[in-house]
Amino acid sequence: MNPAPETFRPEGASWQPTPDDPLAAFPGLLDCVHCGFCLEACPTYRVRREETESPRGRIALMRAALEGRLPEAEVRGPLERCVLCRACEPACPSSVPWGGLLERWRDRRGPGLAAPLLAVLPRRPLLRLLGLALRLLRALGLLGLAERFGPRRLRALAAAVPPGASGFHPSAGSLLPARPPARGRVRLHLGCIQAELLGGVLRDATRLLRAEGFDIEIPAQPSCCGALHAHSGAGARARELARRTHEAFPGEDPVIVLSAGCLAFLREQDPSFPAADPMVFLQRRGLRSSLQPLPERLAWDPPCHLQNVCREEAEAARLLEALPGVERVAHRGAELCCGAGGISFARQPALSGEVLADKVRALEEAGAEAVATGNAGCLLWLGAGLRRAGSACRAEHPVTTLARRLRERPGPDATRCGASRPGSGAG
Ligand code: SF4
Ligand code: SF4
Fold first, then answer.
1. Distance (Å, whole) CA 41 – CA 26
2. The pTM is what?
3. I need a labelling partner for 92 at 20 to 30 A (CA). Which of 37, 168, 249, 352 fits?
4. Alpha carbon of 333 to those of 14, 201, 300, 317, 338: distances in Å?
């Protein structure tokens, strides 16, 4: 692929594209000075070592296509294979807003093969049916067959459904009382796939927050916040779903969001929205529970969006490190994406699988017994990789890591939430 020489454009703050310039809809694209500081931050470049799989290469390809120097078909592959982890953004001295640029680019092509899934996520009855079907197929062993014999994309999707998956379906308007003395109120965001496959994580979160003295309100809310739509070329629908989610949580009480991808998206759409990561929230408020020491070699694999967009991973790490019995193990490339990238793992299973395999190797080398990560997609994909490798290490949400150490048990009012059945963790 040899793009023709770039059109001359004076770069810098004084130059702006005219409204009819195809680059006008991509502000910041020209700010790339080709320095390459982003290369080693990029998980796809780290496994392939090809310029076209790097942020710098993708920026050049996008620009070449927009300027008509390369046909769009030629740049599609590398731009599709970006997992949108956004690790290139904090690494970039020119502040190129790559995440927004790529989302705009994908909006031009639409959601493609992801359209059916994206249509289901915001429709609660259909989503629950999908969740039930996936749990049933897993319990009957049929997903195991799909994992072994299905086409590549189906294999990736099937692998991501964890054994023992459960749903969490509280009645809208549930209020779970704090263990006294109460010290505040939070609202709980349920998520889409999370509420269908990671119900144990949501139950761990409610148990933990109640033990920590927080009343938990679970208001009626859309079954999808739109984050996956934004990643997948359905920007208008994404913004509509984000607006509806914001409206479902009026007021200033913190909204606990267990998936960092949703957290970052909801905040970026409205910076005043009081969304909070549960570990960061508890680190700031201070833990008060009596915790039992559980000796464990624990790795922390911060979700990309907590790290690269919210930039709060250090606070979550401090809370985990302070847990009794935890021996924090450092694994190579902890700061890199696991390859999940929203639903990138299903769209691009080959490259996402290479990124995942490297992550699993790093966890094995470090001798981790458990790896904590606070994002539904990462939990599912990382869990799949560890299971496939026959690893003794398990993936779990940090709220599970913490809830496993609680001495307290929730009071009898826990049943008021109408949760489907007890359970814990993932992976
Ligand atoms: S978003 Fe992630 S995968 Fe995509 S170019 Fe940036 S660092 Fe690479
Ligand atoms: S770090 Fe920023 S300016 Fe440098 S090559 Fe990467 S995107 Fe371009």
1. 22
2. 0.90
3. 352
4. 39, 25, 11, 15, 9
296-403: CATH topology is: Rossmann fold (3.40.50)
Which tokens is 158 given? 């099937």
Query: How many angstroms separate the Cα of 283 from the Cα of each of 34, 174, 313, 317, 320?
Result: 39, 26, 11, 9, 9
* Residues 301 and 338 sit within 8 Å (Cβ to Cβ): yes
Tell me how far apart the alpha carbons of residues 373 and 277 are, in angstroms, rounded to a whole number. 12
133 CB-contact burial (10 Å; exposed 0-12 / middle 13-18 / buried 19+):
exposed
Nearest to 276 by CA among 402, 188, 170, 208: 188
Q: Determine if ligand 2 sits within 6 Å of the CB of residue 79.
A: no
8-state DSSP, 338: -
88 CB within 6 A, ligand 1: yes
Name the burial class of residue 181, with classes exposed (0-12), middle (13-18) and buried (19+) by CB atoms within 10 angstroms of its CB: exposed
Residue appearing with tokens 């985990």: 320
Q: What are the angstrom distances between the C-alpha of 62 and each of 17, 67, 185, 407? A: 16, 9, 46, 54
User: How far is residue 306 from each of residues 274, 301, 314, 355, measured CA to CA in Å?
Assistant: 15, 10, 9, 19
The 10s digit of each residue's pLDDT in 18-71 is: 667 788 889 999 999 999 999 999 999 999 999 999 999 999 999 999 999 999
Residue by residue, DSSP assigns 357-400 as HHHHHHHHHHT-SEEE---HHHHHHHHHHHHHTT-S-EEE-HHH
Arithmetic mean of pLDDT, 312-334: 96
- Reduce the DSSP state of residue 182 to 3 states and report it: coil
DSSP per position, 399-426: HHHHHTTB-----GGGGGG--S------
Give the count of beta carbons closer than 10 Å to the beta carbon of residue 419. Answer: 23
| Closest residue by CA, ligand 2 atom 4 | 35
CATH fold for domain 22-109: Fumarate Reductase Iron-sulfur Protein; Chain B, domain 2 (1.10.1060)
User: How do the domains of the chain map onto residue ranges?
Assistant: 22-109, 296-403
| Average pLDDT over every residue of 306-335 | 96
CA 348 to chain centre: 16
Which ligand 1 atom sits closest to the C-alpha of 89?
6
Nearest CA to ligand 1 atom 5: 55
- Ligand nearest, relative to CA of residue 105: 1
**What are the angstrom distances between the C-alpha of 263 and each of 11, 258, 260, 277, 347?**
34, 8, 5, 7, 23
